[in-house]
Amino acid sequence: MKITDVECLVLDRSFPFVRVYTDDGIVGIGECFRRQLGVTKMLIDELMKPALVGKDPLDTEVRWRDMARAGSATELGGAIYCAIAGLDIALWDIKGKALGMPIHKLLGGKIRDKVRVYASSMARDLTPLEEGRRAASFVEQGYDTYKLHSAVPGAIDDPADQTIETVTAVRAAVGDDVDILVDVNGAYSVHHAIEIGKALEDLGVFHFEEPRPANDLEGLAQIADALTIPIASGEMIYDRFQYRDLILQGRVDIIQPDIVKVPGFTEFLKIEALASAFGIPITVHNTQPILSTVAHLHFCAASTMTPYAQEYNIEHISIRDEISVLKEPLEVVNGHIAVPEGPGLGVELDEAALKELASR
To answer: Does the reported pTM lie above 0.90?
Structure first.
């Protein structure tokens, strides 16, 4: 089998999807991280496609290296890895389809039929009372875990921050049996993060995410050492070497790789092996609820390192909530999503929806 073509489509001017075509007629599908759309498409069209066409898609490890070499990934990092991610997912989709197996079986076999997910609120303009009401509404839908983003992004110790007030309101609204996660996107100094973290401990918060940016390893370590609440981080880094440093130097308790960044199943498996060696659990970062979520479902179904609820974006997403690009949309039932059982990713794109969304 040989790769004959590679295509990158931007859906609704926001979501980059890829298709990898083969001479056997099998087409692999994947999704890239949604930022830097023009850069991602250029990298796929000009660098990744020439590195893949004419080669065997089943050799996923070798193809990953081909793409990394073509994009000088070790020097350029993030943007290259985001482009590789969607293509790597598509290559694993091809492999599963060619072998007649779902990806979770290629990963070693599933240990769960469904994955527990948490309601991830991206809103930053809600009052504490409004966030509490919103959290309660999702608990009523069957979720048992809720994440909020209450700090002021891009600021340090901003006086407008309402994290403690918001968590207090959410706790009052959902009761003591619901886990609350708090993500502040690196918006605190070390000393203020420790102060806030101690208050979050008193409020029974399950994890405290990115009190400092992931590149401030010393700061994260100081915070982790000072608190008992688990410190989570990792959504803004890309490869196993950065995760090694995050674990060893940042001393975080939970790592958060995102399959459309890390990039793809090929690197994700190496990060999982690292996490396993150090006994560090994984809670995936996942803000794209289509193919990114499907890929994460396969990984989480097969991994022993994903014991907690995994992220699911509850905000309005056009390609899910207006026109579904999936023939059979994913459903969250009592806070869980069933793992697809078809070959490869186990889902199909709706060609009519794809065409319409790509033309917007």
So the answer is: yes
